[in-house]
Structures are given as structure tokens and as C-alpha cells.
Write a structure and sequence with these properties.
Helices cover 49% and strands 7% of the residues. It is built from 21 helices and seven strands. Strand 2, helix 5 and strand 3 form a beta-alpha-beta unit. The longest helix has 18 residues. It is elongated, with a radius of gyration of 33 Å. The protein starts with 16 loop residues before the first helix and ends in a 13-residue tail after the last helix.
Length: 454
């Protein structure tokens, strides 16, 4: 009997294979040796019945739900499972009230497992705090997202976070072979002949997701035609058809999104066109919005290349417009072209550095007044007050240049932009040096050149 007096249904053939063959004891659990191996703190806590609220953070199919169930079974705790996708906080609160009664009157603990806890908003997550604080429930949250971003700080501080890794191919083979041989819960009742090549393919192409591997195996077995001896032969071709394509690990709003876009940007910045193309197509193949990638390249063109190659910005913007114009898959050509161009372009963050210096200056000095001589004087009163007085119009001077100060008092000697030595910035550096030399030589003659220009 469970917490509500209902007898759980026995698993049958209609239950997906991935759910049927979940391990029954801790020693059957495959993977996660870093946190669950012999002598680990978590393993000791489970075996000694000293577990507290925690959060499992890891990719899909790595064993978060299975491990939570094993913890409840090993410690003989009531296990209540909710999905943040389909359950309301009202339902969860009703369970918490009942769990509190079980603790207070019968001294029985309840493990409340919330799958995809990141789907609850901050207000909903707040509801758990008093019950976790008092120990009314042992909360186990599972998430594929970075808890630092998706779980509120007060709840995070009350839970131990354990990072689960995606399963390795060798671990996946153990799980698959167990499913193949298990006559009671797995596929052992079938006469199966599965090639090593097919097994290796499933282990590799499931991308560390046991659910994907087991679902593919079950589908392949169910669709394979038995021969005259009732033997189902599962070869590479059948498995490839069952899997269709590799399930790429990529969540457009989650942790892996940030990991891969970071790898893409760093590859562009690091002038590696091959890596840039690899990470870009990892995202495109997983369904990323191509315009998102184009926007990031537009940003990088100014932030990391800047005036070292002013054309980089034009190439990035053109790629963005091409994608909007032709769509996918043809737009991929433009994105690939832009990525290669940006990766191989000379790099400079001088624009970025200059921008940050100016923003810092403004933050520290606040609103310094505009010098009177470069103010506009649209009214007689403003002209009388000296607005625009003695402004020198550069076009009235040789080489269209006049020595003048355009910065406010207090910061007029500042230099924010320092061009680098690569690409076009080398030319800009020469221009700035030339202007500085001219500035030293030119003596303003405001008496003869005092034309006001708006």
C-alpha cells in the first residue's frame, strides 16, 4: 500500500521496457560511480538511512528517477512521485500535508520526488521551503537544467546538489544486455539474436540516454519479423531504422545550450574554423533557431574582431539576412560561410575595451556638463549665455582638422580606444597617431575662424 492506500499496478508488457527493468536494489544500479561508488558519502547516507533533501542534476536518461526510487526502497520510505510538467502545486501541497501527518503521528518519512523541478516557478518552489526546513518531507528534485539558474537560492541552500553524468557506452551495454536476458521484466522471453554491431550502435548513438537506448531496443524487437524458428534477428540495419537518428543532447533553454553556444563562440574567438563549424552544426542539427546563431555572430563580429576587419560585421549581418530570406536548409551555407570568415579574421577586442572604459568613466563621473563651445544655441538666450561660442568648424581649416577639445572638463585627457596591431586596426592606429601629431602642431585661431555650425 502506498501513502494514499492504493495498491500499485503490477508492471506488464504494456509498460515501457525502460520502466519495467528499473533495478530493484542499489547494487544493480549502473553508472554514477563518482557519487554512488563504494565508500561515497551518498551511498553511505542511503545505506545508513541518513538521507536529506537533495537535487539530482544531469542529462536525460542518466538514472535520476531510478536512483530516487532506489533510495526510497532502501530506506523504506514512502515514495511519492510528481512531475512539475503535469502536476500543480496544489496537488503537491495536499501530499505534503499527508506526509506531515505520517511523520508526526507514525514517525514515517516520505520522499517527495519532483521530476523536472525547474518547471515550477519561483513562487511554486517557495512552497516547499517550510516543509523541507522542518523535515516534514525529504525532497528529491530532478532537473536537466543548471540548478544555479533554475532553482531558487533558499531551496538550493537547503538541498545537497549531486551532478549525474551521461552514461558511457560500456555502461549502456550492461543495461541493454540486462534487458535482453531478463525473462521476467525484459525481453528474455523472445528468441533474440542481436549482432554485436547492432548492440554497439545502440550504445553509442543513444548519447548516454538509457531511455533512448531501451526504447530503441524494444521497438526493434517488436518490429523484427520472426523466422520459421521464431528467432528475431536484430542487425545494424534494423537498429538504425529504429533509432532513425542520434538523439543529440541539447536543450535550447538549458545547461547544454549554454555549454555548446559557449564552445561555438570560443572557437570563433580562438580562430578555429573547424571547431566553430562543428559546434554550430551540433546546434542546428538539434533544432536551434538559425537566427539565434546569426545574432551571436553579429555580436562577435564587433566584440572580438571589431575594426581589425570591419567587413566581418557586414558578413555576419549578411548571413543573418540570407537566413531570413531563404530559410533552412539553404541558409546553412550562409551561416557556415560567416562562421569560417569570422574564425579566420584578425581579432581585436579594442572596441569592446573602449566601450567598457567609457561606461566605467560615466558611472564614476556621472553627468559631466557638455563644454559650452560645442553646445547647440537654437535660441538667442542660449547664444547670450555662451552656448556654441568659439566653436571651430573643422572644414574651415587645412586638412579639415582643428585642434579642439570635445570632452568635458575633468576627463578631457582620457584615451579610451587603443587600436591593436592586426588587420585594418593597424591602419587606424596610424591615422590616430597622425591626428595626434597634427593636434600638437595646429594652433587654433579662434579670432579668424569662429564660424558657428549646428
Amino acid at each position: 500500500m502506498d501513502l494514499f492506500g492504493k495498491t500499485p499496478l503490477k508492471k506488464n508488457a504494456l509498460t515501457p521496457l525502460a520502466d519495467r527493468i528499473r533495478p530493484e536494489i542499489l547494487d544493480e544500479f549502473v553508472g554514477q560511480k563518482a557519487i554512488l561508488g563504494e565508500g561515497s558519502i551518498l551511498r553511505k547516507a542511503i545505506l545508513e538511512d541518513k538521507i536529506s533533501s537533495l537535487i539530482f542534476w544531469g542529462p536525460p536518461g542518466c538514472g535520476k528517477t531510478t536512483l530516487a526510487r532506489l533510495m526510497a526502497k532502501t530506506t523504506q520510505a514512502y515514495f511519492i512521485s510528481f512531475s512539475a510538467v503535469t502536476s500543480s502545486i496544489k496537488e503537491v501541497k495536499e501530499v505534503i500535508v499527508e506526509a506531515t501527518k505520517q511523520k508526526d503521528f507514525y514517525n514515517k518519512k516520505t520522499i517527495l520526488f519532483i521530476d523536472e523541478i525547474h518547471r515550477f516557478n519561483k513562487a511554486q518552489q517557495d512552497a516547499f521551503l517550510p516543509y523541507v526546513e522542518k523535515g516534514s518531507i525529504i525532497l528529491i528534485g530532478a532537473t536537466t537544467e543548471n540548478p544555479s539558474f533554475e532553482v531558487i537560492s533558499p531551496l538550493l541552500s537547503r538541498c545537497q546538489v549531486y551532478v549525474l553524468k551521461q552514461l558511457q557506452p560500456e555502461e549502456m551495454k550492461i543495461i541493454l544486455n540486462r534487458a535482453i536476458s531478463d525473462k521476467e521484466k525484459g525481453l528474455g522471453s523472445f528468441k533474440l539474436k542481436i549482432s554485436d554491431e547492432a548492440l554497439e550502435y545502440m550504445a553509442q548513438m543513444s548519447n548516454g540516454d538509457a531511455r533512448v537506448a531501451l526504447n530503441s531496443l524494444e521497438f526493434a524487437v517488436n518490429t523484427a519479423k520472426p523466422d520459421k524458428d521464431e528467432v528475431r534477428k536484430i542487425d545494424l540495419k534494423i537498429v538504425q531504422e529504429a533509432m532513425q537518428k542520434k538523439a543529440l543532447l541539447y536543450d535550447k533553454s538549458g545547461e547544454e545550450h549554454y555549454n555548446i553556444i559557449s564552445a561555438f563562440i570560443k572557437s570563433l574567438r580562438g580562430s578555429d574554423p573547424d571547431a566553430a563549424l562543428y559546434w554550430m552544426f551540433r546546434m542546428l542539427e538539434a533544432g536551434e533557431d538559425p537566427l539565434y546563431l546569426a545574432r551571436r555572430m553579429v555580436i562577435l563580429a564587433s566584440e572580438d574582431i571589431g575594426n581589425a576587419d570591419p567587413q566581418a560585421l557586414q558578413v555576419a549581418v549578411a548571413a543573418k539576412e540570407a537566413v531570413e530570406f531563404v530559410g533552412l536548409p539553404e541558409g546553412e551555407f550562409a551561416l557556415a560561410q560567416a562562421a569560417i570568415y569570422l574564425a579566420t579574421a584578425p581579432k581585436s577586442n579594442a572596441v569592446y575595451e573602449a566601450m567598457n572604459k567609457v561606461k566605467k568613466e560615466i558611472k564614476e563621473t556621472q553627468a559631466l556638463p557638455v563644454p559650452l563651445h560645442i553646445r547647440n544655441a537654437p535660441t538667442p538666450l542660449m547664444e547670450k549665455l555662451g552656448y556654441g561660442k568659439n566653436y571651430q568648424y573643422p572644414h574651415d581649416f587645412p586638412q579639415h582638422f582643428v585642434s579642439e577639445n570635445y570632452l568635458p572638463e575633468g576627463v578631457k585627457q582620457r584615451k579610451y580606444y587603443t587600436p591593436g596591431d592586426l588587420g585594418f586596426e593597424e591602419e587606424l592606429k596610424k591615422r590616430i597617431e597622425n591626428l595626434e601629431q597634427m593636434n600638437k602642431k595646429v594652433t587654433p585661431n579662434s579670432a579668424t575662424k569662429n564660424k558657428k555650425k549646428k
